[in-house]
Amino acid sequence: MKQRGFTLIELMVTLALLGLLATLAMPMLELTRQRQQEQELKTALKEIRRGLDAYHQAVREGRIESIVGESGYPPNLESLINGIPDISDPNRRPMYFLRSLPRDPFYPDPRAPAAETWATRNYASPPDAPVPGRDVFDVHSYSDKAGLNGVPYKEW
C-alpha cells in the first residue's frame, strides 16, 4: 500500500525556497516603507509652509495684529491650528491656517505632540544654521537620516 504525503526532503526544499523569497522581499518592503514616509514628509512640509505663508500674508494685509519690527510669522506652530482673531472682521472671528498639524513621519516617538516633532527656524536665523526663536519662519525634520535622493531630511 502506497502512502501519500511529502517526504522530509521535499518539505526542507520548500521551506528553503520560502526563506529565500522572504529574504529577497524584505529589502523591497523597507524601500517601499521609506518611500511612503518620504512622501508623507514632503506633503507635511508643503502643508505647514503654506500655512506659515498664509499667516504672513494675513499679517501683511492687516488682518492679524502685528508689532512693529516683528517678522509677521506666527509665534509657534499651534497658532496655525488654534486660530487667530481677524481684526478686519467686526466680530473678530478667528482665522485658521491649518485644520490639523501633521506629524514628522521620521520622528521616533509616536506619542509626542505633532508640534514637537518638527524643528523650527526663526526669521532671523540663517538657512545653513536654523535655530528656533520668537517666531516660526520654517520647519524641518529632526531626523539625521538621508533620503533616497541622498539629501538629509533636515535639508528638505
What does the model show?
This protein is mainly α. It has helices spanning 8-60, 78-82; strands at residues 84-85, 94-95, 118-121, 138-141. The chain has one domain (15-155). It is built from two helices and four strands; from the N terminus they run ααββββ. The strands form two sheets. A two-stranded antiparallel ribbon has the order 1-2. A hairpin with an 8-residue loop joins strand 1 (84-85) and strand 2 (94-95). 19% of the residues are buried.
Point out poorly predicted stretches: none
SS-derived structural category: mainly alpha
Distance between the termini: 71 Å
Q: How would the global form be characterised?
A: elongated
Count of structural domains: 1
Query: For the largest beta sheet, what order do the strands appear in spatially?
Result: 1-2
Roughly how many Å is the radius of gyration?
25 Å
Q: Can you count the helices?
A: 2
**Strand residues, percent:** 5-15%
Q: For the report, how would you describe the main beta sheet? A: 2 strands, antiparallel
SSE string: HHEEEE
Count of distinct strands? 4
Helix content: 25-40%
Give a topology summary.
Elements: H1 8-60, H2 78-82, E1 84-85, E2 94-95, E3 118-121, E4 138-141
Antiparallel strand pairs: 1-2, 3-4
Main attributes?
156 residues; mainly alpha; two-stranded antiparallel ribbon; two-stranded antiparallel sheet; 2 helices; 4 strands; elongated
Outline of the structure:
This protein has 156 residues and is mainly alpha-helical. It has 2 helices and 4 strands, in the order ααββββ.
